[in-house]
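Table S2 (text version). Query chain:
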Amino acid sequence: MSGKVYCHNGSWYVNWWDKVHKKTRKIYHYKGEKIYSKKTAEKLLSVMQSDVENGTFYIEKYVSKGFSDVIPFIDDWFSNLSGLSPATEKGYRSYLKNHIKPFFKKHSQISLPDIQIDILRKFKKELHNKGLSPKMQSNIMFCLHTILDAAWIARRIPAIPPFPKKKEYGLTQQPIKWLPEDRQLAVLNQIPYDHQPIFYFLKYHLRRPAEALALHKEDFSDNVFTIHRSISARVLTDKTKTGEIHSIPCHPDFKPFIDIELDKQKRHRIISPFFFVNPSGRTPGKGYKAETLNRLWNKACKQVGENIRLYAGTKHSSCSQYINEYGLSESDLQVITDHSRLESVRNYAKTEVSKKLKLMSKNVRYLKQPKTKKGDL
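Corresponding structure-token output:
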């Protein structure tokens, strides 16, 4: 096995033949500290030989004090990413710039194999101290997990270290906020007539707002909407958030709104590839922007005294109505929404207190009360 330990002027070092660069390396530092004992030098040599056996040896990990291979690997990993949605790429870029890379620059002695549960918990604690939400902390840690997964595939680390458990983030499952249909319709009816079609599309077809924004005329044929586009970080993409293509039949109650949309485009002489257009829009094709939908929705909510986000007020509300007001089963809703897992629709089955009381009352048995003796309280 390559490598020997030597002493020079009271300092120990490992003498190592670098096969890649065809030269001898003298390594005087171990974990950022100068080596002053034979025992430490032998330990370093053992670690280097172990890396060779595991196929994870990387000479730059050892050649200079404080060198870390983490930042170079992250930069190389990110520059070679492909197939990400614009929103995911934007998120990764932010996590790396503001959190992950600053941490490893500050702790420059840490190399890829050094990243274990203790380092990960230290990083997580730093995220917590910044005041980041549990969800944001989880997202950043997931990004780091993806990086280490790539490092393992590249044989730069022997195994992916265990990460903090979900319960350590303090994540809690919040109940879905939704509107009963009468209150949902009250909001929708406050939206200006020409803008109503896209909102009723969201109500009746249970899709994401970004998918409605990206819908093209050519995506509607034989009374079926083919959902295969979306808007990600304000960029039109030819795939949905999950990458799946959905065939959604046109809801019968939505058909009048198709006529409203076509009449609007005819009146304003708008020729556009988009199914839904905003007559006052300034984007090519006059497609709606997410900001416009949110502004119209929030204004309508304010007019009827509601306070709920667009996504919750349309998709979440309609899904919850199917189960809690119309009595559909979770499996029925799964078919309608095209969710891949039944667990994904279970949150919509959270019933209100009044509905629970109604169901409970059906099974109440009125038992004859036992007679009390005279003098009993």
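Notes on Table S2: The domain at 70-169 is CATH 1.10.150 (DNA polymerase; domain 1). The longest strand covers residues 11-18.
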